[in-house]
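Entry 12.
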Amino acid sequence: MTTTQPTLPTKEHYIEILEQVTLDDNEKLMLRALYHAKGHWLTGTELSQAAGYKIASTSANRAFGRLGRKICEKLGYTEKQTTAVKGKIIADYPTRKIDGKDRRVYAMHPVVVEALRELRWFE
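Predicted 3D structure (tokens):
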């Protein structure tokens, strides 16, 4: 299945949505970790560790997808749109050179960083 790059909400809309969404502890830890990471990006393993998962990036990937699903639902996305977008509503997945290897990372969208900064959740 291919994923779609979503049209991102405004900072104000993200703020409104984030205030409405109920986040579990792992979701908060992932958002906190990405927010505080240099450049606002982490590998799947780093994100997984930050959220307290024992199984590398698979658990973080699932949880990140659930978090994205919650936000997409608040945006009024259809099930089909939500399935296509999920975590991309929070972050993109570019490739970075790490230890000489190309690795996919979770890179938080700048507008999400701005919304979290304004909310002062992780200050």
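Annotation: The longest helix spans residues 56-74. The two ends are 37 Å apart (CA to CA).
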